[in-house]
Structures are given as C-alpha cells and as structure tokens.
TrEMBL record:
Family as reported in the entry's similarity comment: Belongs to the binding-protein-dependent transport system permease family. HisMQ subfamily.
Protein purpose: Part of the binding-protein-dependent transport system for glutamine; probably responsible for the translocation of the substrate across the membrane.
Any Pfam family: BPD_transp_1
Subcellular location as annotated: Cell inner membrane; Cell membrane
Protein name according to UniProt: Amino acid ABC transporter permease
Source organism of this protein record: Microvirga brassicacearum
Keywords: Amino-acid transport, Cell membrane, Membrane, Transmembrane, Transmembrane helix, Transport
A GO cellular-component term linked to this record: ATP-binding cassette (ABC) transporter complex
GO molecular function: transmembrane transporter activity
Source superkingdom: Bacteria
InterPro entries to which the protein is assigned, alphabetical: AA_ABC_transptr_permease_3TM, ArtM/GltK/GlnP/TcyL/YhdX-like, MetI-like, MetI-like_sf
Length: 223
C-alpha cells in the first residue's frame, strides 16, 4: 500500500510539479475560453443559415457539418498544424488548436441548434413576422431563444465535451494541462502528475455532468 501511494499519490512530487500543472490548467482554460464561444457562434450561424431558401447553401452547410463531424479533432489538428504549412499557412500551436476545436465543435453545435430551431412551432415565427420583425430579428429575438431553451441539456453536454477535447493540443506540444502532466512525469519519473491532472479534470467537469443529468431528468418528467 505504501508503495502504491508513493507511486501514484506522492505528495512531495505533487508539490514540486504543481506550478507546472497550474500553468497547464490556465492554458486549458484559455483554449476553452476562446474555442467555446467561437464554436457556439459559428454553430448558431450555420443552424440559422440552414433555413436559407438556397438549396446550394443548404447543401454546402450540410457537407461542412458532416465532414467536420466525421473527422476526429486530433486528425484535424495534426492536419492544420503539420499539413497547412505546405500551403504556406503557418499557425502557432494555440491558433491551430483553437481552429481545430472550433471547426469540430461548431459542427456539433450546429446540429444541436438546428434541432432546437426546428422544435419552435412555425406559428411563433409567423407571429413574430406579423409584428413587423424581419427574418433576422424574428430569429434573434424569438426563435433562437426558444430553440436554445429546448436543447439546453445538449448544449451544456457538448460544451463539456469540447472543453475536454482541449487535451488534444498536447499533440502539437502546446503546454495545456495534459502536456504539463506528461512533462512533469518525464522529469520526475513518477505518474503522480498524471493522476493529479485526471483529478483536476474530474473536479472541473463533474458538476457539469451532474447538471446535465438533472436537466435531462427534468425534461423527461415534463415530457
């Protein structure tokens, strides 16, 4: 038991590497703070644009969503960071990670918001237009708020998943939480930093997981 604790829960090791882990945590939160709003904004825009009368626009948007959902975000990140330079496009680690997360995340948010918008009765749109609101105003003030409420559990769940995916940034040596834990483990030859990183992830996400469960249970009760 003592050997197990010394190996996986070494307090001395944790105290020594904690500044490095904290630095990685701030990078993870920074990635999330940029990628999540961009993904949501792009997802809303795509969902609203899918209401377009143009068949070509709808086909292009569906192709984008299907493609981004089919490609693993890690593969997308590696292509952006290591592939685009051959085309003369050089992005830093942070920008490449944000772009990969945004492209992938927006495709899922687009589908969630699309389902939310479709759940709003057409009568609501017609009523909004009859008051003098144009299409953009009726979507912004009437349809999108109602649709968002209808799919709120899915939005929260997808946001949590997107934040967890920030760990893929370690593939391009961006020093987020997982990368910091890997570096610390390599320096001290002890897995305690990896265990600590896992615990930090759990502490961050468990409340949101419970929140999603409550919201889903409440939705089932009211349905």
């Amino acid at each position: 038991m003592t050997e197990f604790v010394t190996t996986f829960f070494n307090w001395d090791v944790l105290l020594e590497v904690w500044p490095l882990l904290l630095q990685g945590l701030w990078m993870t939160l920074g990635l999330a703070a940029v990628a999540v709003p961009l993904s949501i904004a792009l997802g809303v825009g795509i969902a609203m644009a899918q209401d377009s009368r143009s068949k070509l626009v709808r086909m292009l948007l569906v192709s984008y969503v299907d493609t981004m959902r089919a490609i693993p975000p890690l593969v997308l990140l590696i292509f952006i960071f290591f592939g685009l330079p051959f085309l003369g496009v050089n992005l830093g680690e942070f920008a490449a990670a944000v772009l990969a997360l945004t492209l992938n995340g927006s495709s899922y948010f687009a589908e969630i918001f699309r389902a939310g918008l479709e759940s709003v009765p057409k009568g609501q749109r017609e009523a909004a237009r009859s008051t003098g609101l144009n299409w953009a105003q009726s979507m912004a003030y009437v349809v999108v708020p109602q649709g968002t409420r209808n799919v709120l559990p899915d939005l929260v769940s997808n946001t949590v998943e997107l934040v967890k995916q920030t760990s893929i940034a370690s593939a391009v040596a961006l020093q987020e939480l997982l990368r910091s834990a890997q570096l610390a483990q390599g320096l001290l030859y002890n897995p305690t930093p990896l265990v600590a990183a896992a615990i930090v992830y759990f502490i961050m996400f468990w409340p949101f997981v419970r929140l999603v469960s409550r919201m889903q249970n409440k939705a089932v009760v009211h349905s």
